[in-house]
Structure formats: structure tokens, C-alpha cells
Write a structure and sequence with these properties.
By secondary structure, the chain is mainly β. It has a single domain, classed as Cathepsin D, subunit A, domain 1. Helices cover about 15% and strands about 50% of the residues. The strands form three sheets. It has a six-stranded mixed β-barrel with strand order 2-3-11-4-10-9. Strands 5-6-7 form a three-stranded antiparallel beta sheet, with no helix packed on it. Strands 1-12 form a two-stranded parallel ribbon.
Amino acid sequence: MRYLIILFIFYCTHASAENTPLTTIGWIESVKILPEGLELEAKIDTGADNSSLDITDWQKLNRDGNPWIRFTVINNSGHTQVFERPLERYTRIKRKGTEPLKRPVVNMLICIGNQQFLTPVNLAKRKNFKYRMLIGRSFLKQRFLVDSASKLTTSPNCESEQ
């Protein structure tokens, strides 16, 4: 009997995940970082495992004995926003033919369309790239489909919690 209950729960969970409609987005989308409300264009990168955000500088802080990080982001319109987030960890980014990079990782609430999700984001100096943010597979998984022929199919429409 216990086996049947477990099997039923698995079936229902699996069936509901399969039946949940995924939102189709383009390879470039406008996103909003909450609660600050900063909007920027992001490249939807199915080749990247994780999301990444271009920052101009960062500074490690200590709050109540816990590591935090303060960093600055400049969006496509030139608007500057300072963020402060708890430092979750560091990640190593492999590079061909040279030493890996060590990047700080923070959790950020990202809005695409009318959906918002908390996701880990590594902070990088991406000044040579056109798009300030990459949205990787870990954010997209079981939420979005990517139409590589489309871009800017949605506008971020999530309420800021400030």
C-alpha cells in the first residue's frame, strides 16, 4: 500500500510538471532586478549553466558577522544602481588555457514577463559584452522555452517590493 501511495504521488508530481505550460521567450529579453526595480536587457544563454551579471565594482562587507557584498550595476540606458546582498559563496569559472576565475555569487530576484524567481547570480566584469546580464539554464529550467529567432517578447511586469 505504501508503495502505491508513493507511486501515485510521484505520478501526480511528474504529470503536473509536464503539464505546466512553459513561457516562450526570445534570446534577448528585458528583465528587472527586484526589489530595486532596475531594468536591463539580458541575453538568454542556454549554453551557460548559471546566470551572470556585469558589475563595475564590488566591496565585501560584514553584517552581523555574515559576509555581504556591495556592487554597482549600470543598465543599457546608463542608469547606475548600487546593490547589497548576502554573499552566498564563490564559484570558479573555467577558462581555456589559463587559470579559473573566482567570482562571488549572490541570490537575486529576477523578473521576466510577469514571473519572478530567486536565483543565484555570479558577479563578473563583463564590460566587453553588449548585454549586462546572462540568464543561464538553471534559471530557465522547467520555466521557459527559448525561441532563438525572437527577442524582446516580454516586458518585466512584476511589482517591486520596496
